[in-house]
Amino acid sequence: RSDPMVAAKISQSPVDLLGASWFLKSFKLKTKQQELLIRVSILCLVYVLAFIVRLFSVLRYESMIHEFDPYFNYRVTQFLINNGFYEFWNWFDSESWYPLGRIIGGTLYPGLMVTAALIYWTLRFLRFSVHIREVCVLTAPFFAANTTLVAYFFGKEIWDSGAGLVAAALIAICPGYISRSVAGSYDNEGVAIFALLLTFYLFIKAVNTGSLAWSLGSAFGYFYMVSAWGGYVFIINLIPLYVLVLLITGRYSMRLYVAYNCMYVLGVLLAMQIRFVGFQHVQSGEHMAAMGTFFLMQVFYFLDWIKYLLDDPKKFHAFLRIGVTSAVILGSVALGLGTASGYISPWTGRFYSLLDPTYAKDHIPIIASVSEHQPTAWSSFMFDYHVLLLFFPAGLYFCFKRLSDATIFIVMYGLTSMYFAGVMVRLILVATPAVCLISAVAVSATIKNLSQLVRAKSKSVSVGSGKGATSTKASSKVSGAMDQSLPFQRNGAAALLLGAFYLLSRYAIHCTWVTSEAYSSPSIVLAARGPHGSRVIFDDYREAYFWLRQNTPPDAKVMSWWDYGYQITSMGNRTVIVDNNTWNNTHIATVGRAMASYEDEAYAIMRSLDVDYVLVVFGGVTGYSSDDINKFLWMVRIGGGVYPVIKESDYLVNGEFRVDRGGSPKMLNCLMYKLCYYRFGELSTEYGKAGGFDRARGVEIGNKDIKLEYLEEAFTTSNWIVRIYKLKPPNNR
Amino acid sequence: AIHQFPASAAVLFFCIFVPISSGSVLSELSALQSQSPNGVIHLHDELLRRILSLPPPRPFHALVFFDAQKLHSKPDLSLATLRSEFALLASSFQLNNPNEKSQLFFFEIEFQESQSSFQLFGVNSLPHVRLIPPSASNPKTDSIPMDSSDFSRLADSMADFVAAKTKFSVGQIHRPPVISKKQIALIVALILIWIPFFLKKLIAGQTILHKKWIWMAGAIFIYFFSVSGAMFNIIRKMPMVMGDRQNPGKMVFFYQGSGMQLGAEGFAIGFLYTIVGLFLGFFTHILVAVKNRNVQRLVMMLGLFISFWAVKKVISLDNWKTGYGIHGYWPSSW
Asked: What DSSP string describes A584-632?
């Protein structure tokens, strides 16, 4: 699988292949045409590679939707296809957030679902009869493949076509991107990274050409991004920052003016068509930077124009002083008034937590509880970028050495997103395209220099002819040095070239391995290694959800922790109390409170919510560690954030969370504990250990004698991963 | 000092029969409280004796911080920090609840001068904080010790403890700002004076900000900051190094397990990444301009060697840390 990859590397210097190009010569192609042919075929190979490397999950498991959020997206897509766009837009979903319900059309980013539906309708129109699930499963790989094309053009724009090819190859298999775009991971990010990169590319193209057409394109790219993912906020803050930097460094031009104004005005108007976003662009604090830059730009260019009209510098300076002061005062007064009157909303918690990373940990447990919102340790960077991390600073250096409007942009994109990636693990995804592009600059420029050295003897070959060989200052220095063409130097260059190829092939191996081992698991079906190295599959989730679908009344309400809400509505087709759309903290806290209370108190809470069934996920038998007991402290924290009767310290012993005999009495008798460990004391899980040995936590449980008073066990899956309990009806009085 | 215990118990016993009016003690405590700069009353054996001699229920709660000057030098106890946090708790409580000032008193007691009181409470390890409820008659059994988990978030968690065990809520903790208001004013004034000069220079294009290398260094620094996981260290408040549990004298620099890291570990790795990347830039842009060919070769060799070593080190550390053994993937079976 690494072959196309390496091929892509070689192609930096198309001339490098000349030795083998007798084949092409026999077609009587000119050098330029040969280069084009090689470039196009490499790009095609990269395109295919990007697609197939993401199919591991389908081969390993089956064509299925992964994880949590994708199940909601899938359910919504099914609804869209069955009922049409207008029904979808006005859909009020009464099956989630019981008894509140959720206005789906107004609270989601519809880009992904509409895209999948369009693909589905197109395929249907072409008489391919596919199931909607297959379309959904393959949407993310398809868009990842498209991203490689955008990366190629972007790389070409900021450096040269060689860098573009390398960037395409790097991003095709970069684990940081694969983690969110394997087949089956039907989530917003899958299309959003494509949209993000496309918007940036079109904007840079517009800045470089000053053409309205490109600018219009980037406005539409922005629209697509807004429709697909909340991460659009990154774009609407990065681009103004970039414009500001260009203004300050004196790199402003009419091109910039055209590009930004058209993109901003049209982009904002288009973005307002998404109901979930609505008027945020003119009202929310997160979008004010873009608007401020927009007005600043008008003032700036207006002053420039005045300067052109008044050729007396003294007059102009006086004008400048008055103009700038009044503009700044006016702007700050407007902002202050807007904020004070509540017209401009303050920043949201998620945004704060990016700027002040310790904010979420102290103030918003529901954000801090999500595993992908944790800060990033160095090993995660290594895991997701591998050698790209080594090339990144070199790429920065190269970009600084050849500053242009485009390289300034990519440096800014790289650094800001790198910082954010350090704050939250999931934002590694946003940084991936930038890292690939900047690394590609380093790889491409280095390899080009080296291969020129290797080929120094036959330097009569027209190196500077192809587009791909725009010689940099650096390479001209190198060619200056190679005029002496020492044999030793050529050998050294060849050795370095081999070293670079070795590193890149390690990268290819690492990426393939990571994709197959770490990122292709659907997490709805669990796999483990058996005692003899064979694979054991735990399909308990689906077992439980289908049991719900078959054996419970259609209007039954199921209570579970919010992680499983989307899956229960989508696969079990039953109403849930809370789900992964964490819009109502109080409701989630109520569920957390019920789980953390004693059974009788919990029963009262559950009755008030009309709950019929309670579902818990338990890993004590299989050793599955992300179960509800391990998530329990977050339930306590979130519950305690709203209901102060729940106190974290009641569930801890000396600051330690324990489920064994030394656990706190409240812990050993709360609802969650009882539901997870009911009848567990009788079960022997491991040879040589007493009954009730919890394999996920490696301890013998502390309360084996559990009696349920208000609930009864309804169903437990074959490996005990999912346990469902039914509420007993209230006693007759 | 065990022999002192019966003596003080006898004193206590004796005092119960000589009731002191609660009013006089209360007014004395209030006076001491207002004298103290942070509202923490310094407790000694005699004062404690008088407090305990009041017949329960006493009209106030008492929260006692057990301190020992001698142990302030031990960093792992962090007594000094806890003591200042305790003072912060006291002053915040008194500021937020002016009407309940005389219903909850904050005390500190020093080991050297009040050993018998330590005996009385049976305190033999620090840090230790105890709440004496109004109804307590036996200081050892009726008072409530603060768990170590209640120290974990310093004053905030102590406030939670107070709220949980008494009916008072401390309210917001008023931490003194890192720099005082006067200093802020001074700094703002200095900046305001400096801005016009700076702007003039900026327009003339003479500042350090016009140097490309400063931006480059900044960019490299941000990169270094991110990949070294510095943000992780800040958010999780990770220490630079950790003592080994089995072998206390030894330091652990690298933590095994993928979701965690120590401070020094991240910086070491970030440094290795950066050095390799910078070498690449250095070789291709600066080294080629060096005239002396031998120097060129030597530096190149050295650089290659260091890069090779760094990459190898990073990869092996990563494999060790995460436990993943990366290997070529050949589709023989799945």
From this structure: -HHHHHHHHHHHHSBHHHHHHHHHHTT--EEEEE--TTTT-SSSHHHHH
A10 touches chain B (CB under 8 A): no
**For residue A224, what is the enclosing H or E element?**
helix A212-228
CA distance A57 to A313: 68
Helix (H) or strand (E) holding A93: strand A92-93
Question: Is-contact A515 A56, C-beta < 8 A?
Answer: yes
Mean of pLDDT over chain A: 84
pLDDT in tens, A244-281: 888 888 788 899 999 999 999 999 999 999 988 888 88
* Largest pairwise CA distance in chain A: 104
Q: CB B230 to CB A358 under 8 A?
A: no
Q: Do B258 and A377 touch (CB under 8 A)?
A: yes
Residue B62 pairs in a beta bridge with B105, B132
Beta strands A102-103; A557-559: pairing state? unpaired
Q: Tokens representing A573?
A: 């087709």
- Give the β-pairing of A526-529 and A535-538: antiparallel
Going by the DSSP 8-state scheme, the letter that residue A542 receives in this structure is: H
- Give just the sign of the alpha carbon dihedral A623, A626, A630, A635: negative
ipTM score here?
A: 0.77
Long-range contacts of A650-655 (CB under 8 A, 24+ apart): A651/A596, A652/B149, A654/B147, A654/B148, A654/B149, A655/B147, A655/B148, A655/B149, A655/B152
CA–CA separation, B27 vs A92, rounded Å? 65
Please state, in angstroms and rounded to a whole number, the distance separating the CA atoms of residues B260 and A210: 48
Rounded CA separation A378/B318 (Å): 9
Are A464 and A191 a contacting pair, CB within 8 Å?
A: no
> Facing residues of B105 across strands?
B62
**CB–CB contact B147 A649 (8 Å):** yes
- Smallest CA-to-CA distance from B323 within B255, B246, B224, B239 is with B255
> Looking at domain B22-166, which of 3.40.50.740, 3.40.30.10, 3.40.50.300, 2.60.120.470 is its CATH number?
3.40.30.10
Retrieve residue A402's tokens: 């050849």
Cα distance between residue A521 and residue A535, in whole Å: 13
Return the C-alpha torsion angle A702, A705, A708, A709, nearest 10: -110
For chain A, positions 196-225, list CB contacts with chain B under 8 A. none
Q: Is the pLDDT of residue B122 over 60?
A: yes
On chain B, the residues whose CB falls within 8 A of the CB of A60 are: 334
Of the candidate ranges A187-196, A481-490, B210-219, B252-261, the one whose mean pLDDT is the lowest: A481-490
- Asked if A558 and A570 touch (Cβ cutoff 8 Å), the reply is no
